[in-house]
Write a structure and sequence with these properties.
Layout: H1 14-146, H2 152-168
Family: Belongs to the ATPase B chain family.
Transmembrane segments: 12-31
InterPro entries: ATP_synth_b/b'su_bac/chlpt (IPR002146), ATP_synth_F0_bsu_bac (IPR005864), ATP_synthase_B_chain (IPR050059)
């Protein structure tokens, strides 16, 4: 049937087949060491880099989200502080307004009191001047009526009597 030296289908000698198999195995070993190893290492490195990039992107995304939340919180705090500053400014303005109104009211009251006091003083002065004028006219009329000149002491006594008479009425 078949001989040891040939293969049945192709009639290739076994020595050539063994050489081809050994050559093929040697070639596979060389390819594994020279080509497959570096290619596999390169592919593994690339897979690790992609994995690291994805992890880094996830970390960066998480940091961005945290930063966005922090900025939103700071914005809310800033708005609250701004609202407080506005409220404080309004309160301060109201307080100053109240103080100014109170001061103006006090000054107006003081001016009114002074005016009233001055008016009363002017009234008293006018009444006193009117009394003196009336007394002088009365003395003049009386001396013309009596055709006699009164002395200064007599005039003063007459004036005082006339004034006291006016005051009792």
């Amino acid at each position: 049937m078949f001989g040891l030296t040939t293969l049945a289908a192709e009639k290739i000698p076994i020595g050539n087949s063994v050489f081809i198999i050994i050559s093929f195995l040697a070639l596979m070993y060389i390819l594994k060491k020279v080509a497959y190893g570096p290619v596999t290492k390169t592919l593994d490195d690339r897979a690790a880099k992609i994995s690291n990039d994805i992890d880094g992107a996830e970390v960066a995304r998480q940091e961005a989200e945290d930063l966005a939340v922090q900025r939103q919180s700071e914005l809310a705090d800033t708005r609250q502080k701004a609202t407080q500053v506005v409220a404080d400014a309004k309160a301060s303005a109201q307080k100053q307004s109240d103080t100014l109104i109170s001061t103006a009211s006090d000054r107006a009251t003081l001016i009114s009191q002074r005016a009233q006091t001055d008016a009363e003083k002017l009234k008293e002065d006018a009444i006193l001047n009117a009394k003196n004028d009336v007394a002088a006219l009365s003395v003049a009329i009386a001396s013309k009526l009596m055709q006699k000149e009164l002395s200064l002491n007599d005039q003063q006594a007459l004036i005082d009597a006339y004034i006291s008479d006016l005051e009792t009425k």
